[in-house]
Write a structure and sequence with these properties.
317 residues, alpha/beta, 9 helices, 16% strand, globular, binds nicotinamide-adenine-dinucleotide, binds uridine-5'-diphosphate
Length: 317
């Protein structure tokens, strides 16, 4: 399409969410026109408040399970609740967002000949038996458990992306995102980093599920946003899927102790039951992202937590 006003017009679905709001900000600062589409289920409008007056920014409150008619050059499809508490609140809606939402965005990309990127997830690997997880691993996912609405929804969305690519020649990119944290995470969304920081700052016990020996790899939001943009701009013909995450691996108990230490909190650890199907280990193999896009995270856990703790301190004050 002809676009006289900027390099590119870019649609970000889920643009009012944690990752989406950082992505919109970065795309605007790179000089692009940005359309943010969000139903504000888990992304409060405050996340994008400071962007609303920007001449190249537009916000549309819309649910992507319904058709959408717009013109653009690129689509980042991020709309979907990401924390287990939020995606299990209405699991059928989560599936609809993943599948009907992906279909609508793919239909939109097909009509407008836009390049389209799917925000997929490390959850497609389920509770993995291969460690660290390369993109070639097919995963071990429970199809009927409480996490399935998200895990299987995201797996089916990947299938749809690849079928639109094969059947209609769509220019697709699929990024598998591992646990990402940073400022603007929702303080009540139940994810581990936000929970622990808020608990530590309030002097409440840190709720470690299970014995805390399960592992996760935590990527700082700026690194992840940089990775998403590199995936979108990767060479023609490169579709992914490609892992984006920080390969540093920590047990949940180590994370709790680090956060208690860094906040100077007197909080204790309170062990709670482990939710069902909670993966025991997770760590990305990022060799493909390094090779294809020269991407690797730059922000280590402690500097990233420092910035995130600063954000939550301000929020709580
Ligand atoms: P988030 O919940 O903060 O953001 C999701 C956004 O999507 C919210 O603004 C929400 O209101 C919006 N949304 C949900 N359903 C919608 C619908 N039907 N129509 C329109 N908008 C809708 O979550 P996040 O952490 O920013 O995650 C963004 C994307 O990245 C998600 O697709 C998620 O699955 C993926 N992801 C995130 C992580 C992570 O660690 N943050 C890890 C893996 C994958
Ligand atoms: N779609 C949309 N916006 C568009 C084009 C399509 O929301 O600009 C939706 C459309 O409603 C359909 C889905 O995308 O449900 C898939 O579209 P496609 O053209 O691939 O399939 P079809 O409409 O032939 O079923
Ligand atoms: N977790 C925890 N306490 C909390 C929240 C989460 O111990 O208050 C654990 C959770 O059981 C999981 C890990 O931390 O093992 C990461 O959880 P999160 O919900 O952040 O992400 P996901 O399980 O989707 O990776």
């Amino acid at each position: 399409m002809v676009n006289y006003y900027s390099d590119r017009r870019i649609l970000v679905t889920g643009g009012a969410g944690f990752l989406g709001s950082h992505l919109c900000e970065r795309l605007l600062s790179d000089g692009h026109e940005v359309i943010c589409v969000d139903n504000c289920f888990t992304g409060p409008k405050q996340n994008i408040e400071r962007l609303l007056g920007h001449p190249k920014f537009e916000f549309i409150r819309h649910d992507i399970t319904l058709p959408l008619c717009l013109e653009m050059d690129e689509i980042y499809n991020l709309a979907c609740p990401a924390s287990p508490v939020h995606y299990q609140y209405n699991p059928i809606k989560t599936i609809k967002t993943n599948i009907h939402g992906a279909l609508n965005m793919l239909g939109l990309a097909k009509r407008t000949k836009s390049k389209i990127l799917q925000a997929s997830t490390s959850e497609v690997y389920g509770d993995p038996t291969v460690h660290p997880q390369p993109e070639s691993y097919w995963g071990r996912v429970n199809p009927i458990g409480i996490r399935s609405c998200y895990d299987e929804g995201k797996r089916c969305a990947e299938t749809l992306f690849f079928d639109y690519h094969r059947q209609h020649g769509l220019n697709i990119k699929v990024a598998r995102i591992f646990n990402t944290y940073g400022p603007r995470m929702h303080p009540n969304d139940g994810r581990v980093v936000s929970n622990f920081i808020v608990q530590a700052l309030k002097g409440h016990p840190l709720t470690v599920y299970g014995d805390g020996s399960q592992t996760r790899s935590f990527c700082y939001v700026d690194d992840l946003v940089d990775g998403l943009i590199r995936v979108m701009n990767s060479r023609d013909g490169f579709t992914g899927p490609v892992n984006l995450g920080n390969p540093g691996e920590f047990t949940i108990r180590e994370l709790a102790e680090t956060i208690i230490d860094m906040t100077g909190s007197g909080s204790k650890i309170d062990f709670k039951p482990l939710p069902s199907d909670d993966p025991t280990q997770r760590k990305p193999d990022i060799a493909l992202a390094k090779k294809e896009m020269g991407w690797e995270p730059k922000v280590g856990l402690e500097p990233g937590l420092e910035k995130t703790i600063g954000y939550f301190r301000g929020l709580i004050a």
